[in-house]
Each structure stands twice: as structure tokens, then as C-alpha cells.
Amino acid sequence: MTEIRRLLVQAFEGGFSEDDWEHTIGGWHVVVADGGVALSHAAVVPRVLEVADRPLHAGYVEGVATAPVRQRQGLGSLAMAEVSELLRSEFEMGALSTGLHGFYARPGWERWQGPTFVRRSSEAIRTEEEDDGVVVLRFGPSKDIDLTAPLSCEGRRGDDWQRRCAGSERILFLFLAVG
Ligand SMILES: CC(C)(COP(=O)(O)OP(=O)(O)OC[C@H]1O[C@@H](n2cnc3c(N)ncnc32)[C@H](O)[C@@H]1OP(=O)(O)O)[C@@H](O)C(=O)NCCC(=O)NCCS
Description:
Elements: H1 2-11, H2 18-24, E1 28-34, E2 37-51, E3 54-66, H3 75-90, E4 93-97, H4 101-105, E5 110-111, E6 116-120, E7 123-126, E8 134-138, E9 151-154, E10 173-177
Parallel strand pairs: 1-10, 3-4, 6-9
Antiparallel strand pairs: 1-2, 2-3, 2-9, 4-8, 5-8, 6-7
Bound molecules: coenzyme A.
Coenzyme A binds next to strand 3, helix 3 and helix 4.
């Protein structure tokens, strides 16, 4: 975990806070490692997202990063391919928030086109500023969901959609050896 944290701090160039770390741990972690050194990472945490009024058991992807000196060598894509497998086996859909749409579009992630909301108590509060960032991976139970429908997440401390996640109990490391 120390290695993963070091990697995230490096890759986000000082933009990765203590809070960010706390919200990144506690789910599944895909780690691409070479010689025991973590080079690329992506975490998946469970969240209930509602498409219109339909709750879906989503895997929310957080902490996607590749060590700066190893970027643009396909390692992030390798981690995301493994994440995709994990999502398909454990969840009903994938989701994340990003500004790097190109990176996720190639492996099949799609931009959400409808309005986004956060659920607090019984209220759904509009998160208009997040609309452009949310992308989803549809498959199985979610393959036919309407990308223009309202989409909501449960509220949490800090940013509701961005690069944060609630802790859970299970941690699974998947190590991939690369040359
Ligand atoms: C985003 C990030 C994880 C990508 O990792 P990576 O290992 O370099 O990704 P890959 O080499 O697999 O890239 C695959 C493709 O995604 C796209 N891509 C990757 N990084 C990109 C970037 N910074 N800007 C635009 N497109 C990018 C390119 O199309 C690339 O293919 P190409 O190199 O043939 O042009 C890495 O740049 C990173 O750690 N960035 C800092 C942290 C961050 O912003 N994380 C994402 C938060 S949502």
C-alpha cells in the first residue's frame, strides 16, 4: 500500500491529499508492477448509482495513475483492462469521473449524457458541474441503460463524484508482471 500511495502522489503531482488517499483505499486494487515496483494502479469501490429510479450495484473507479516516467507505454490501459474484468465479474456497471475522456473511450467507456445528482437524505441535489466528467462502462444488467437518463450517486464526504471513495472491507491485489 505504501508503494501505491507513493505512485499516486507522484502521478497526481502534489494534487493527491490525505483525504484522497483515505478515499482511495478499501476496495479492489489493480496494480501493474515490474520487479516489485508499482507502476500503474486503479482502484474499484462499490457504490450504488441510480439510473432514473433504478439502483445499480456499480464499481466506481478511483486512483487511476501511472508513474510519470512510464506513462504512454500502455500500462494504464493494462490496469484498466483488468478493472474491466473485475467490474464485469463483481458489479452491474462501471463508473468514474474524469477529465481525460480519450483514455477511457478506447476501451469502451461512454460519456454520461444525462443530468447528474447526489442523493442526500431524501433529496436529490443537482451536480451540474459534474455532468461532463462522468463516464460509464455498460455490460450485462446495465448494457441497455439510457445514457441520457438522470444519474445519481449517494453523498459522501468531499467531492461526490470526483476521485474519492468510501472505504469498504475487502482488498484484492492483482499483480501483473510486465517486462
Ligand atoms: C491518465 C494516466 C493514468 C494514463 O496512463 P498511461 O499508462 O500513460 O496510459 P496508456 O499508455 O495506457 O494510454 C493509452 C491511451 O490513452 C490516451 N491517453 C493516455 N494519457 C493521456 C493523457 N494524459 N492525455 C490524453 N490522452 C491520454 C492516449 O490515447 C493513449 O494512447 P497513445 O499513447 O497511443 O496516444 C496517466 O497519464 C496518469 O497517471 N496521469 C496522472 C493522473 C491522472 O490524471 N489520472 C486520471 C484520473 S481520472
